[in-house]
Write a structure and sequence with these properties.
Radius of gyration: 31 Å
Helix content: over 70%
């Protein structure tokens, strides 16, 4: 799903809710228990969707961060190794000259 297809909170809030009254034809024959069951099913579905989307987002962020760290290591590690080796070899060379 692209960013363009993802609804935003402002779009959802801006919609006018469709209110069904108990005497409307759509609500006839549905008991309060059935409505409560539907609300529970819808809530559970929503929470599962949010959970799945969050896990996917975290996996994507983790992959991005991992790539960033690996790229930084590739760029900085050779210089660090070079600095340490150069400093150590310079110390050894100075110590051998004094003997």
């Amino acid at each position: 799903m692209s960013k363009d297809e993802t609804p935003t909170l402002t779009e959802a809030v801006g919609r006018q809710p469709v209110v069904q009254h108990e005497d409307s034809p759509a609500m006839q024959g549905i008991s309060a228990a059935e409505i409560a069951e539907l609300q529970t099913e819808i809530s559970a579905g929503c929470f599962e969707l949010v959970d799945r989307l969050m896990h996917n987002a975290f996996r994507e962020m983790e992959a991005t961060l991992f790539d960033d760290v690996v790229n930084r290591l590739k760029s900085q590690l050779p210089d660090m190794i070079d600095e340490i080796l150069t400093a150590r070899l310079d110390q050894d060379a100075e110590g051998n000259e004094g003997q």
